[in-house]
Design a protein that fits this description.
Number of helices: 4
Distance between the termini: 22 Å
Helix content: over 70%
Largest sheet: none
Radius of gyration: 14 Å
Strand content: under 5%
Shape: globular
């Protein structure tokens, strides 16, 4: 596997943990965090300034989708693996 992919995998999972800490510290509610992630997702989906292929747009959206899924899982008291999240994102696309 490409080293950059492994680094991104680690970064995404670290961000998921940071998101949990933000909620646990009452800096944001889970709903506010999900709203912020959804806002980022929507901005990418609606970006017409760049002619991105569907696969490139999906690649850009991947980490946001993982973080949204991680927040949903955390809200249920679950913590999935990166592989689990990747499979779920694949089903979404």
């Amino acid at each position: 596997m490409n080293t950059a992919n492994l680094q991104l995998k680690g970064l995404i999972m670290a961000m998921a943990s940071i998101c949990d800490a933000i909620v646990e510290k009452d800096l944001l509610t889970r709903q506010e965090l999900n709203a912020a992630l959804s806002k980022a997702k929507k901005a990418i989906e609606e970006d017409d300034d760049h002619e991105l292929s569907d696969s490139n747009r999906a690649a850009i959206l991947f980490p946001i989708r993982v973080l949204l899924l991680a927040e949903e899982a955390s809200g249920r008291g679950e913590q999935l693996t990166f592989s689990d999240y990747a499979k779920l994102v694949g089903k979404m696309s």
